[in-house]
Design goal:
The complex is a heterodimer of chains A (about 180) and B (about 160). Chain A is about 70% helix and about 5% strand. Chain A has about 180 residues and is mainly alpha-helical. In chain A, helix 2 crosses helix 3 (about 45-65). Chain B has about 160 residues and is α+β, with helices and mostly antiparallel strands. Helix content of chain B is about 45%, strand content about 35%. Chain B has 5 helices and 8 strands; from the N terminus they run αβααβββαββββα. Classes of the chains: A mainly alpha (about 180), B alpha+beta (about 160). At the A-B interface, helix 4, strand 1 and helix 5 of A face helix 1, strand 1, helix 2, strand 2 and strand 5 of B.
């Protein structure tokens, strides 16, 4: 490999900063700084390192091929679905807040014949009457269910006697009790 | 993919219960200001405040599960456009009960009086008491977390206002 002299590099750098270098000369400079530069030219190394990195990245893209849209990769699909679900959840929250959520109600509302009455005691008294009537009907159900329960218990109590009677009748027919 | 579909479906389940409660509330709101109707809405907080000194802990626990009590009462004789208001209200409620597959828990007939108790499928829903007797039709709605303890309390007559 031809070694480049310091003077040649200096000359090329001057031309570079005057924008008069050819592509070949620029490539020469990049290769020089990539393989290690003289101390005198160390200050220019970061600049050409940066150019080299960019060129490497461009070269890699050419080898790998065009960028595949994220949606077509496995992780891309997962990310896409998560975004979809999160958007759906946000939409559900908005729907709930503005459409489905029960509107904040008053602690008391009393309407009699279409007119709003602001009388807490009257409302509570009327509600109490209605619940008392309801509870009295339910009380009759309670009485009825208790009767059923007592009948069931009576039935359970009678059944052993019934079985004994049945046994006795069987024995009578067999003649065991005749003696 | 299956998990995502299940999560999406599950996230909509709460809306089903809210839909049932909203439908019942919409019907009660519709008749609330009718000139032939008596309508009462009471929050459990108000009941607790009203009966603070007399209330025992089980009653307080019960009220803490409820969000609202609503009562609508209409005389059977009142008509609008030739149709009984009580009948219209009953039809609207029957439609919701049928559409939302509410369960009938109890039906009691005492002479000419008929009382039916319905519950929404979801726990966070409503208990409906429909009481028909000659001359009057009454709807009592209890909204909130209607778990078995609330249903038992209602059947046992433990839900009292005073």
């Amino acid at each position: 490999m031809e070694t480049i002299t310091k003077e040649k590099i200096k000359e090329l750098l001057d031309s570079y900063f005057q924008a008069t270098t050819s592509l070949e000369e620029e490539k020469l400079l990049r290769n020089y700084f990539a393989t290690g530069a003289h101390k005198e030219f160390e200050q220019y190394k970061p600049l050409f390192d940066c150019f080299n990195m960019e060129i490497e990245a461009l070269d890699k893209e050419k080898v790998v091929g065009p960028k595949i849209p994220l949606r077509n990769t496995r992780s891309g699909r997962v990310n896409f679905m998560f975004r979809l679900v999160s958007v759906g959840a946000a939409a559900a929250i908005v729907l709930y807040t503005f459409i489905f959520a029960p509107q904040k109600s008053d602690s008391l509302r009393l309407f009699i014949n279409g007119e709003k009455i602001m009388n807490q005691e009257l409302a509570i008294s009327m509600a109490n009457d209605q619940f008392s009537r309801l509870n009295s009907i339910l009380g009759k159900y309670q009485g009825g269910s208790e009767k059923l329960e007592s009948l069931n218990r009576a039935g359970d109590a009678i059944s052993p006697l019934f079985n004994i009677d049945k046994l006795l009748k069987q024995n009578r027919h067999d003649g065991r009790l005749e003696k | 993919m299956k998990k995502i579909v299940i999560i999406a479906l599950l996230s909509f389940v709460p809306f089903l219960a809210i839909g049932q409660v909203k439908q019942i509330n919409d019907i009660l709101d519709k008749y609330e200001k009718n000139k032939y109707v008596e309508s009462i809405l009471i929050s459990p907080e108000l009941l607790q405040m009203a009966g603070e000194s007399q209330m025992n802990q089980p009653t307080k626990d019960l009220l803490s599960k409820l969000t609202e009590l609503r009562i609508l009462s209409v005389k059977s004789s009142h008509k609008e456009n030739g149709v009984s208001v009580a009948q219209l209200l009953r039809q609207d409620l029957d439609r919701v009960i049928s559409q939302e597959n509410m369960s009938r828990i109890l039906k009691i007939r005492d002479g000419e009086e008929l009382m039916e108790m319905f519950k929404t499928k979801e726990d966070k829903g409503a208990l409906l008491f429909l009481n028909s007797k000659p001359g009057e039709f009454t709807v009592i709605s209890i909204f909130g977390k209607i778990d078995p303890s609330v249903v038992n309390a209602a059947i046992s007559g433990e839900i009292n206002i005073k």
